[in-house]
């Protein structure tokens, strides 16, 4: 049985497992997680070690688990039920997205049209970019633009043909 936790010590909306009467907890996945938790505590994995691993592995759960020598499911549970670790995971994932976005932007500026299209599709929706290739604000089809015009658009400049 799954219940939603509403106390102030857990992240709102966190689901916890509760057993029905007579359930043999010693053979459950929850019991394994609890055993893993005891093992992790006794092995000396501190909160600071978790945080450093999350940061160095850019929030990749499998990599964090491997670095700390813990089962992946334990790391997931620990992060899910610890607000500080959860916030670190969110921050690490955002930083990873920023790095990839910067890389795509650099390639777009360098003339990589695929990267330019990806960047504009993700960031130029307010200008009419997206799944359709037509810029709805000026009525131009991107297929009619030159590479130089597209590069200007990616840099935030307005090509002469669009003025």
Q: Rg to the nearest angstrom? A: 24 Å
Oligomer state of the chains in this structure: single chain
Number of domains: 2
Q: Biggest sheet: strands, sense, closure? A: 2 strands, antiparallel
Number of strands: 4
**Would you identify the regions where 5 or more consecutive residues have pLDDT less than 50?**
1-5
- Helix content percent band: 40-55%
Enumerate how many helices there are, as a single number. Answer: 7
Strand content: 5-15%
Structure class: mainly alpha
Give me the side-by-side strand order of the main sheet: 1-2
Measured distance between first and last alpha carbons: 62 Å
Q: Provide the residue-averaged pLDDT.
A: 76
Query: H/E order of the elements?
Result: EEHHHHHHEEH
| C-alpha geometry | elongated
List the helices and strands and how they pair.
Elements: E1 2-4, E2 15-17, H1 29-43, H2 47-56, H3 61-68, H4 72-80, H5 83-109, H6 113-123, E3 134-135, E4 140-141, H7 147-154
Task: Give a verbal description of the structure.
With 163 residues, this protein is mostly helical. It has two domains: 2-88, no CATH class; 110-162, no CATH class. The chain is built from seven helices and four strands. The protein has helices spanning 29-43, 47-56, 61-68, 72-80, 83-109, 113-123, 147-154, and strands spanning 2-4, 15-17, 134-135, 140-141. Strands 1-2 form a two-stranded antiparallel ribbon. It is elongated. The N and C termini lie far apart (62 Å). The relative contact order is 0.07. The model is unreliable at 1-5 (pLDDT under 50).
